[in-house]
Amino acid sequence: MYDQSESELLRLLADRAGIVADYHDIAGTQHVTTDETRRAILSAMELRAGNREELIEELMAWDNRPWLRGCEPVHVIRFRREAETWSFHVPCEVPDDAVLQVRWSLQPESEAQPREGTEGPGLCIQETRTIHGRRFVRVALSIPPDLPLGYHTVKVWAKTNSAKVDTTCRFIVAPERCYIPDQLHHGARWWGIALQLYSLRSDRNWGIGDFGDLASVVEWTGRRLGAAVIGLNPLHALKNTKPYHISPYSPSSRLFLNDLYIDVERVAEYHTTAEVKARLADPSFRARIEAARRGAFVEYDAVRSIKREVLELCYRAFLQEHFEGEEPDVRPRTERGWTFHRFAEDEGESLTSYALFQALEESRQAEQGVSTTWADWPEPYRIPSSEAVAEFRRRHMQRVRFFQYLQWLAADQLLGLAKKTHEAGMPIGFYHDLALGSDRYGADGWRSQDVLALDADCGAPPDAFAPEGQNWGFSPLDPLRLRASGYQHAIELLRKNLRYGGAIRLDHVMALFRLFWIPRGLPASMGTYVHYRDEELLAILALESVRANALVIGEDLGTVPDWVRERLEATGVLSYRVLYFERTHSGAWKSPAHYPAQALAVVTTHDLATLSGYWEGIDIETRSGLGLVASEQARSAMLSGRQGEKAGILAALKVEGLLPPGVSDDPAQVPAMTAELTEAVHQYLARSPAWIVLANIEDIIGARAQANLPGTLDQHPNWCRKLDPAVEGLTQDSRFERFAAQLRVIRPPV
Fold it and tell me: Are strands 599-602 and 236-237 parallel, antiparallel or unpaired?
């Protein structure tokens, strides 16, 4: 059966695992996957491919696995009321001449009692297979059509007079599309403001924008400006140490929040604890807060230190006031204590694991005197389910509970703010950003080793911007093990991130379909694409979106095949359209009318130049100054190209009648981006049928430096630049009032 050459067997196994044979980059250049890359990626998936014998064994196991297991681990059903029955196939071991009877039990997610049924004898055999002398048949079972939306557990027992098999699988009953508010179907067109939360400067924060500052922004943009949405950077949990652990797109955990965003002064214990008052009365401590507040950049280590000192004191007071008993029998004795207890119970194992990792990492660092990764810990501590980890938890539960306390405070404050957005009349409220992955050496990497391919990185193929490709430095989810687990990790990830607002942006939404894998230790140019079960992932996305009443926006920039955008559109996912990239084949800017309706439109993103920076070529000069531009000739060509792009924008504005009075359509006569020109560019986008248009605060105030310069680490102040003016000044800035008034005319409230 497997009489092909070793190379052919390797290609066969790689194809079954979803590894593509070749791909075309954004320029149309074909890249053929090498055997070296195939072997390395298969190994990262824990499939053996070292020689011919291993390949044959893996292929046989692959082909036999569904029969031996009993059924596929996941079945997706799209919710259709007209459906009569839903069927799925079950392989059963049946000796010759045996009479087969199958009993099934379906436990709906939201029902107390299971539904049960028995079929046979006399079942119709769909397919037959012999494995090691044992005969298996595949039969179809019918499930009632009135299942509600949700995740349902199906157990099957197949029995003959001489053999039996039992198996379990997950039924996912999902809507056809993600949640879309009725207002959008009836013509509403919304606009909002986007910001990097850490960048907010204020007279009251402790050196980083926090949830207290965000409360001010909600009141300002919602009640006064009439915005429908506030776009935020990912708020995921970070280690908050420079330079490696401050990017919101490479968090320690995507399941939990960055506790630096806690507004310490809104914590109940802050106002009642004598030790906190004493610490705040210390002139040296106040000086540290003032220094962090005044700085032009967020000093993550300093902010983390001063906030942690006060939150530690708050936590001790919290335990003393609201709990009684000794470990492990400590128990709540007040309503506030019980509220925390219920939060921890509701969050379950994922929060315990996260807090346990935080405590372990802290303990190991204290012992070693230097920061280490969990891969360097003693082996028993590398395995979350080990007895050593369980013993650590028993001995250090009070410390574990501290990190649960921080997450409780953060979640409570953010949920309270989400409620305020609705009270302020904002139909969407917060628009959150979900990062593509997390640090392999962070909390998620430690907890989720069973579904992560830790011996691979993900990134992007070669293009004009990065001729050797890009390596983003975090581990991809293994599509095989993820599916075998019933997609629990993906479900939990979406559910926790969808609960804090009315919309979510999926960074690199292509990962629902395929992701560019790079074997660890090889250059990015040696990577290739790996496919995922997009039908199943899109079903989960639609189900969680509908449950949370939250819009989904897919960041679909770069090399995105047309069929992917078509699938996303059919699933109700909004496209993400950036003005800089919206060109016709001739290079001219697309008119507003040519933007799709099911989309979110923006001028720029955190990885690109601000509008003022773009206009003045600041991004090009910055990259050149850092040695990231190949030559002076290349720099000159880029600046010349930018002039042509600016001419195109001015021409597009002129066609729409939006060129401000006195402004020439010759870019040489318009050296700087003015407030009037900024308004015109955003009016251009606002005229599009796109359901949502976002404006970055940096663009409205004329900031020239971008939040992140891809390809740099500590050469550029990524993810730490503060805005100027402070929040108190922003709320009084007439540019925002004028900007909002213009957008309200083009996109009136419905």
Answer: unpaired
- d(C-alpha 286, C-alpha 282), whole Å: 6
Give the 3-state secondary structure of 410-475. Answer: HHHHHHHHHHHHHHCCCCCEEEEEECCCCCCCCHHHHHCCCCECCCEEEEECCCCCCCCCEECCCC
Contact call for residues 699 and 693 (beta carbons, < 8 A): no
Peptide bond between residue 243 and the one before it cis (omega within 30 degrees of 0): yes
Domains for the chain: give ranges and CATH numbers: 6-67 (no CATH), 80-174 (2.60.40)
How far, in Å, CA of 508 to CA of 555, rounded? 5
What whole-number distance in Å separates Cα of residue 33 and Cα of residue 35?
A: 7
Over residues 662-685, the pLDDT tens digits come to 999 999 999 999 999 999 999 999
**Which pLDDT does position 548 carry in this prediction?**
97
Is the predicted pLDDT of residue 689 greater than 90, yes or no? yes
Which tens digits make up the pLDDT trace of 204-236? 999 999 999 999 999 999 999 999 999 999 999
DSSP, collapsed to helix, strand or coil, labels residue 540 as: helix
> Residue with structure tokens 């729409």?
656
Q: What is the pLDDT of residue 160?
A: 65
Q: What is the DSSP letter of 589?
A: B
In this predicted structure, what is the pLDDT of residue 164? 62
CB 676 within 8 A of CB 660: yes
Specify whether the CB–CB gap between 331 and 283 falls below 8 A.
no
- Phi first, then psi, for residue 460 (nearest 5°) are -140, 150
**Which amino acid would we find at residue 247?**
S
Q: With beta carbons less than 8 A apart as the criterion, state whether 579 and 685 touch.
A: yes
What distance in Å separates the CA atoms of residue 574 and residue 509, rounded to the nearest whole number? 11
Query: 491-511: b or e for each residue (b if 16 or more CB lie within 10 Å)?
Result: bbbbebbbbbbbbbbbbbbbb
Beta strands in 203-344 (DSSP E): 229-232, 236-237, 253-257, 323-324, 331-332
What single-letter DSSP state applies at residue 297? B
Of 356, 351, 276, the closest CA to residue 309 belongs to 276
Helices (H) and strands (E) in the chain, counts: 24, 26
Q: Label residue 158 by pLDDT band (50, 70, 90).
A: confident
Q: Which residues pair with 456 in a beta bridge?
A: 519
Longest dimension (CA), the chain: 91
State how far the Cα of 590 lies from the Cα of 599, in Å rounded to an integer.
15
pLDDT band of residue 162 (cuts 50, 70, 90) is low
Q: Three-class SS string for 232-252?
A: ECCCEECCCECCCECCCCCCC
Higher pLDDT, 182 or 135: 182
Three-state secondary-structure class, residue 325: coil
Closest CA to 169 of 150, 156, 185, 186: 156
Residue type at 111 in one-letter notation = E
Tell me the Cα Rg of the chain: 28
Structure tokens at 505: 């942006």
What is residue 344's three-state secondary structure? helix
Grade residue 568 by pLDDT with cuts at 50, 70 and 90.
Answer: very high
Asked if 707 and 696 touch (Cβ cutoff 8 Å), the reply is no
Instruction: Name every residue whose Cβ is closer than 8 Å to that of residue 731 and which is 6 or more positions away in sequence.
Output: 216, 220, 224
* pLDDT class of 171 with cuts at 50, 70, 90: very high
Whose tokens are 């957008």? That residue is 743
Average pLDDT, the chain: 93
pLDDT at residue 272 tops 90:
yes
